[in-house]
Design goal:
The protein is α+β, with helices and mostly antiparallel strands. 16% of the residues lie in helices and 21% in strands. It has two domains: 37 residues; 41 residues, no CATH class. It is elongated, with a radius of gyration of 16 Å. The protein binds zinc ion (2 copies).
Length: 86
Amino acid sequence: MSTCEVCGNDYWMSFEVRTTSGEVHVFDSFECAAHRLAPVCEHCECRILGHGVEVDGRFFCCAHCARSSGSRHGEEVRDAVGVRPG
Ligand SMILES: [Zn+2]
Ligand SMILES: [Zn+2]
């Protein structure tokens, strides 16, 4: 058993998450993992729980937020493969 580093719950199904920097975190739920690790959209400030969008090293929750950021490359980002252009 391991104790969740966010809420302190000692749960038999807690799990570890290893980040790109090599840190290992322990959580009892995906909610706690997202609370600690999920990036925050620069435009609307929600937690990015899906794939999100990375433009010029900045993170957004969706193509709309990337476009709204005024980033030069955000103009080219679309919400889904095969979306109708224009
Ligand atoms: Zn927790
Ligand atoms: Zn957003």
